[in-house]
Design goal:
alpha+beta, paralog of FGE (formylglycine-generating enzyme), 2 domains, Four Helix Bundle (Hemerythrin (Met), subunit A)
Amino acid sequence: MTTDDTARRGTEGAGEPEPAPDGLRRRALDALTAARTRTALLTDTVDDGELTAQHSPLMSPLVWDLAHIGNQEEQWLLRTVGRRAALRPEIDSVYDAFEHPRASRPALPLLPPPEARRYAAEVRARVVDVLGTVPLEGGGPLTDASFAFGMIAQHEQQHDETMLITHQLRSGPVALTAPEPPRPALAPGPFGPFEVLVPGGPFTMGTSTEPWALDNERPAHRRDVPAFFLDTAPVTCGAYRAFIDDGGYRDPRWWAADGYGQIRRHDIGAPLFWRRDGGQWLRRRFGVVETVPDDEPVLHVSWYEADAYARWAGRRLPTEAEWEKAARHDPATGRSRRFPWGDTDPTPERANLGQRHLRPAPAGSYPDGASPLGVRQLIGDVWEWTASDFLPYPGFAAFPYREYSEVFFGPAHKVLRGGAFGVDPVACRGTFRNWDLPVRRQIFAGFRTARDV
């Protein structure tokens, strides 16, 4: 560690008081149960043929994700934490995400849907027994504060988000429904200025105290960020459509060279799932074809598209440090909060998370989730591309395995922040870091822009 965490303790988000062991067990069980309930929703709403089909070479068959969830839980919580005998060691290699690319997974000897469900259920029943007996204090970093259980709950929710993406990519009848997100009290735009000044100076980035934070979020460290202006809401479909109408996709001035080559090779001229019908734009969303809503944050754009729009608008994407400062730093106290609104966990009044809705809320929604400077929707609705490569923090240490973060560090992956409507709160916080290739469009990603002072 390159910095003094003790000296910084007053500036990093303190969070909720640490629960006693019984509270830790309840929190872990609740997180695991919520994840499994969502997994069942995503896999029980389609038939076995849809579960075993590959709906896109970019994604695994849904049944692979289902059994992979159980296998990771078995390896970490039964064998490693519980020190129990292996239940299905012969399938470890089949469900090793690094051994088999997604496009090749349909050819593997996958467990059929009924067997995959039974396997995941049997693992879970044994894990509940382990959770009830293993010490959650003083047993080491895997079990202290129930970290390993939180890690596996986050892993399952991340695969649930992946399966939700597969549902968006699949064709056929509608399988998922959800209520519409609430509309802001005011019409889009009048809720405040379209940008705010984020003052320059140091702030505490990352965390050394969040109990379920993953390795790439650690350790907390000081960053000095010059003053900048940031959009108060994500870029909307209507604003993005002006870029399209102005010929943005055919003007190389706005594009990184690799990005322009990508859109020309694949004849891309709009966000994924959009199509023009006469004088209007339509999109397909979870099996429903609808008019593109002008006031909703734009979705399913790559980093290259976000970067090109920002240049066209005379702006730029915020860096990862700028994004986190805007989302966590409280200018009045100098402290970094857990979330824009404070240290308490997300609620439906503050952020669009957890698959409660199947779309982003209109730009300007969730005033209760705004930052001290008035920036809205930093958490939830859409993942936000940043300008930054995915790199380790000073003092980074891989834990509990290199393949979670370390093998992805470098210029090939760009950082996304903030979560989206398909992200569960357990896997979303002000320090949470997502990353992907700059060509990716199927993910629930949008962006907001910044500019120098």
